[in-house]
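Worked example 2:
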Amino acid sequence: MRKYIFVTGGVCSSLGKGVAASSLGSLLESRGLSVCMVKIDPYLNVDAGTMSPFQHGEVFVTDDGAETDLDLGNYARFTKSPLYAANSITTGQIYQEVIRKERKGDYLGKCVQVVPHITDEIKRRIYLLGEKKNTDVTIVEIGGTVGDIESIPFLEAVRQIIQESSRRNALSVHVSLIPTVSGGELKTKPTQHSVKALREIGIQPDILLCRIATEMSDDMKHKIASFTNVDYECVFSAHDVSTIIYDIPIIYRAQGLDKIVCERLSLDCSKDTFGNWQRVSDTWKNAKETVEIAMVGKYIDLEDSYKSIDESLIHGAIFNAVRIKIRKIDSENLTSPEETEKALAGVNGLIIPGGFGQRGISGMIDSARLAREQRIPFLGICLGMQIQVIEWARNVAGLKDADSGEFEPNSPHNVIVLLEDQVDITQYGGTMRLGRGESVTVEGSRIYAAYGKKSIFERHRHRYEVNNRYRTVLEKSGLIFSAFTPDGQLIESAEWPNHPWAVGIQFHPEFSSTPLQTGYLFRDFIAAAVDMMRT
């Protein structure tokens, strides 16, 4: 039988179920097991692609072009689990498929209901992933909170899978909150009620991960165990960390979570390669210097809007044996050169991430200008590269009205234009240039030096590109185009000449960077920032 672990959450959202599931996956991989990570989101959207970053955080893109929840980014950074469209399941997908089958006549005239038709489709998708060859354990995270009406069909499907699989082949892991009330007192009652709600659905949790400000006492563990019918040794303290999230697997391992899971699922845990994670933590803790990077973006108000970039910068810092401070700047507040100068004063590097729409663009352009003129290491990602090209066109190439067709469709010099295959698009979900694609780098360029080869593969998510009509004039003015699509038609990278380090890329390297395998561009960008800090 295949092995399944279902991760649920209680009391409130944003408890860190994704990091908990990812940490568990990394622990099992360090024991020589292969894991498959799955995220279930109860929202009715088919995918996360059309959601605002202010509401839902970043969109993580898989190799096959799926626009998914940011938790898949956590899975990618913590584990080696293959991640594709099938690893992200939403209510919208489930109902869309069931209705398609009903219209086709697959249900032979039956009355289509939540049970069994919706739950059967949920189970089918989970089993399809879990039964893949070379998968030892499938870890399924259920989004939302126990008690939400949207989650009920998914929890019912989980209950059925646990019943069908038996306790030796399926585990329920519940993440719950132990809040601190006035006077600093810790309260276990919310966790008790959360487990009660889960049991009323028919699921008895096997393991509790208790989110708490400080490490739990033995007395509290015994109390929770007795009130929730969970074994004492299966109640774990998921206390806050003051360093980086990559310490969380270390906290769980110290409490024996991996051994308990392997024991309960009858898995061999004799192998141990956890030293790699310990080295990541030790490098961060032992770093003596801190490099400061400015991030000038459009969605700064929500911490998770640039989650993969934040983590990739940390990976670059760890590789270079330094710590990092990210100074996040809302580009809309940069209304003058003086404001830009003040906001970027003292930073060792500038990154401009992706985004959509005209808001805050002038502040980004002025930030790029300052980084170019003051020789500050620069990394532009997607929109960031387009900003880099617009700034150069205006201030160096002499195209004073240079702009993007996304912002000013009638500008006389749109150096950024809509992709040809996007012109007639009317449906906005899943229709951008998405997923893994090949780029060919130019020897002698910064990007070639970073990857060490001509042919590279990274993921894309965009509708606009550099206008080929302006390629010659921009190159003659000195701008370096350093990577292209294999047919040479699309520009994938731009670099400033006579600059310590400045690379703009149309793709998203943050989606493939991990703490154990740092993204090449983040490695070199932070190295250049460290050099600036030390001079």
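The radius of gyration is 25 Å. The first strand starts at residue 3 and ends at 9.
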